[in-house]
């Protein structure tokens, strides 16, 4: 049987990891970067990489929740795998790889 302290630890660690990742996301800075630069594919891709790196832990956690229907879980997993493939693509400039600023 899991004690309350063990149970809380199991939830606290992922929460802290998710919270830390979300805190790295500076929406105002990302928005102003887009406004300052030309809104081309590279700029949009750079934003995607930065935002995805910050919210990926949250997406992974949500996709594992038992209250989320199985098809929704599958869709979230497919989405994260697809974006992971884009982010890991050799065509992506290494200066803005996902999670670099974490």
TL;DR?
It contains 4 helices and no strands.
Descriptive report:
The protein is mainly alpha-helical and 102 residues long. It has one domain. The protein is built from 4 helices and no strands. The protein has helices spanning 4-23, 27-36, 41-63, 70-87. Helix 1 (4-23) packs antiparallel against helix 3 and helix 3 (41-63) runs antiparallel to helix 4. The N and C termini lie far apart (35 Å). Residues 1-6 and 98-102 have low confidence and may be disordered.
Are there runs of 5+ residues with pLDDT below 50, and where? 1-6, 98-102
Main sheet properties:
none
Provide the residue-averaged pLDDT: 76
Order of helices and strands: HHHH
Count structural domains: 1
| Strand segment count | 0
Distance between the termini: 35 Å
How much of the sequence is in beta strands? Answer: under 5%
Oligomeric assembly: single chain
* Distinct helical segment count: 4
**Class computed from helices, strands and strand pairing:** mainly alpha
């Amino acid at each position: 049987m899991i004690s309350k302290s063990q149970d809380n630890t199991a939830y606290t660690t992922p929460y802290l990891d998710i919270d830390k990742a979300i805190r790295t996301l500076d929406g105002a800075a990302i928005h102003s970067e887009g406004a300052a630069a030309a809104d081309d594919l590279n700029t949009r891709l750079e934003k995607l990489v930065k935002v995805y790196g910050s919210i990926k832990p949250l997406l992974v956690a949500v996709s594992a929740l038992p209250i989320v229907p199985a098809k929704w879980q599958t869709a979230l997993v497919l989405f994260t795998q697809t974006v992971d493939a884009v982010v890991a693509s050799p065509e992506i400039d290494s200066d803005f790889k996902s999670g670099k600023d974490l």
